[in-house]
Amino acid sequence: MLPESLRRVIQLLSRLPGVGEKTAARFALQLMSDHQLSAGLGEELSTLSSRLRPCEDCGHLAEVPAAGKTLCSICMDPKRDGLKVCIVAKIQDLLAIERSGAMRGRYFVLGKLLSPLDGIGPEELPLDRLEKFLQKHLTEEVILATPPSVDGEATALFIARELESRGIRVSRIASGVPHGGDLEFADQITLGRAIEGRRLL
Amino acid sequence: MLPESLRRVIQLLSRLPGVGEKTAARFALQLMSDHQLSAGLGEELSTLSSRLRPCEDCGHLAEVPAAGKTLCSICMDPKRDGLKVCIVAKIQDLLAIERSGAMRGRYFVLGKLLSPLDGIGPEELPLDRLEKFLQKHLTEEVILATPPSVDGEATALFIARELESRGIRVSRIASGVPHGGDLEFADQITLGRAIEGRRLL
Q1: Do B13 and A43 touch (CB under 8 A)?
Q2: What is the model's pTM?
Q3: Is residue B88 classed as helix, strand or coil in its secondary structure?
Q4: Separation between Cα atoms, residue B85 and residue B36, nearest integer Å
Q5: Who among A32, A74, A98 is closest to B52 (CB)?
Q6: Where are the domains of chain B?
Q7: Which tens digit of pLDDT belongs to each residue from A47-76?
Q8: Is B101 on the interface with A (CB under 8 A)?
Q9: Predicted interface score ipTM higher than 0.90
Q10: Contact state of B74 with A26 under an 8 Å Cβ cutoff
Q11: CATH assignment, A81-196
């Protein structure tokens, strides 16, 4: 019932995370009726993936420079210190922590988590790059901010063991009932962790 | 915290309906990591709005042909009859009705609804085009499928009056409790309409 070219756009849009065919159709119709938006987005997207690369130091996203090493804005910021390094699974997590304002050190993006079920073993983690990063910044503390899931915990534990012998303090972000959350509806594991991780007042 | 070119993409994506900055960022990061998707979408969107136009007959979307009149797939389908014409506010509504399979006639897309608050009066409705359409297809019944909102009802009533003198039967889609809906949570107006529009069994 829709023109072929619009169907192609809908099919592509429905590959975005959390977007089904109906939402994709809404997006497509909006793009269709807003020439400025579709032309602008078209131009940006055509060249997007060639202009961006992971930062060669930390794995965060970075604009590819005309010459030299590809570094992200955090790695290029001289006001940040690398004494504390926060290790995250993905860029979105880095952005979320950054928005919270609770971390003023540097970050390191793993890009993946250990996952025996998906066949992702330790050799796929960027451990060499991490080691170089920590040496370069004379890091004193590593904060493991992988998600509180099975894969995230396993990865945190694995990295903690790897760093054990190097005189670097390793910490793990707290897991418990979220701010504003209702204890009544919290799951057992979260409540268990909240009790276990209790702090003296 | 993000490269400039990615920020531009996020800003554009957040203009899609129902997409906030966080969702736009998720989309952008997905596009960023899927070269095939971003390049494909980029190419399609760059030319999208120049390749599509409203159908000159019914207002539905149509691919602009190399030569001749721009007509949509429904208007070009000889197996459809125009004895029954379903009038809808927007293309999405046409698609929804089409998916239901309940309407095998033709459609007419108004593109807008009467809305005194937004300053949209009868002169902005495509009445001339509608009249030509109904004459061309020797239409016997018009089904008003504008939404059951204040503007939708006003528009339906207005068109019904306009067509009154022309010997065309005018009907309005039923409004009531939706299939699978819970009466307990239905609003007063919906319940009122459900009672009012009751049918003998």
Answers
A1: no
A2: 0.70
A3: strand
A4: 42
A5: A32
A6: 4-49, 81-196
A7: 888 888 899 999 999 999 888 999 999 999
A8: no
A9: no
A10: no
A11: 3.40.1360.10
